[in-house]
Design a protein that fits this description.
This protein is α+β, with helices and mostly antiparallel strands. The protein has helices at 6-11, 51-57, 131-147, 151-164, 196-199; strands at 69-78, 88-98, 105-111, 123-126, 167-175, 178-187, 206-211, 219-226, 236-243. The two termini are 33 Å apart.
Length: 245
């Protein structure tokens, strides 16, 4: 894969560009290929899967016809707003227009409607839902600024974790008046990072992706959590969740 997904990048430019170098980066650009995959095995009951292939190379519009507007709620919660970017709530909307094939769409993006609004997209003639790309790029921009690191370093750590150390478990997803089957993928990309000590509590950041083929656009929820060392409220949590029309 290239960046988060080779086909995703080939199909559409990233909505939010990240700088190649950030002052105080953990590593030089030459070393920015990222850390090795976590050495510890995932739980025996979990199934390994390349989450990147599912998120960035799948056909996500089988239940989302042209003309559909996919809506997602977004909430950023922080424990100490004096130390990190404050929390906020907003929405993300993807307007789907016909692509060149039945499984593809041209995607018009509205990335927040309030003060946090920013330009993003469009994504032309893609089969995948770009929500994961949008929210990961948004998260990593803030993450790199907070830690004074190179965004490419964190991006490649996530990419490696998705490919080599993700766990998967079956879950139920609320849809309509009932529930449907889904899968939750969990990635902990920094737990064995060479720079873990410098990342402190943020090395424990967990990325969870919940998907279901029954959900229009496939992606149901993206939850990024940095737990607090004392077991209290998370230091930072960002939740993007599908909202039924």
């Amino acid at each position: 894969m290239m960046e988060f997904g080779k086909r995703a990048v080939a199909a559409a430019a990233f909505a939010i560009a990240l700088a190649a170098v950030v002052p105080g980066a953990f590593v030089s650009v030459a070393e920015a290929a990222g850390p090795a995959a976590p050495a510890t095995a995932t739980k025996a009951a979990a199934t390994k899967a390349d989450v990147g292939e599912i998120l960035f190379e799948g056909e996500h519009y089988l239940k989302a016809a042209p003309g559909t507007v996919l809506k997602y709620s977004f909430e950023r919660s922080v424990r100490d707003p004096d130390k990190v970017k404050p929390g906020f709530k907003d929405v993300v909307e993807l307007t789907l227009e016909p692509g060149e094939a039945a499984t593809k769409r041209n995607v018009i993006v509205t990335l927040f409607k309030g003060p946090q609004h920013r330009a993003a997209g469009p994504f032309d003639n893609v089969a995948f839902n770009p929500t994961a790309i949008l929210m990961l790029e948004l998260h990593l921009g803030d993450f790199a600024k907070l830690l004074g690191g190179n965004p490419r370093y964190f991006k490649n750590a996530i990419r490696t974790g998705m490919r080599e150390a993700a766990s998967a478990e079956p879950v139920k997803v609320k849809l309509g008046t009932g529930e449907v089957d889904g899968t939750q993928f969990t990635v902990r990309p920094y737990v064995n990072d060479p720079q873990k000590a410098r990342m402190a509590a943020f090395s424990e950041t967990v990325y969870r992706f919940t998907v279901s083929p029954e959900v229009p656009g496939v992606i149901y929820e993206i939850r990024i959590t940095t737990p607090a060392p004392d077991g209290g409220a998370p230091l930072v949590e960002e939740v993007t969740r599908y909202v039924e029309n």
